[in-house]
Design goal:
Blueprint lengths: L24 E2 L11 E8 L4 E8 L20 E6 L7 E8 L4 E8 L3 E7 L2
Length: 122
Amino acid sequence: MLQSRHLRNTVAGLAMAAAAVLAGTATASACDRGAEVCSFRLINNTGVELYSFWASPSRVSSWENDILGDDTLGAGRAVNVNLSDGRRDCVYDFKFKFSDGDIIERRQINICRLGRYTLNER
């Protein structure tokens, strides 16, 4: 059963802030998609290990490769995420799968303005 007890929204500056259950904190522009790699810091501020993380352009109809691959992101840990896919897209959808089986999806995240994205306990 999908549970969202692990996450709450602390997003500043994203249009979806009021409706989201996850948190991302916008900072100054993190990239220019036509010129460089887009990167942000993913912070797991929950008490549950993150097993998988997918980020795909919103215009794409299916999830692409798991960014974490064989790695996981432990509770209280952070990782730098570099999206070097060569696309000009700024708007992505995120999907997170936790060790307890919870799966959370968030839509329409502007990665070009995202300096960090924090998953918080609720």
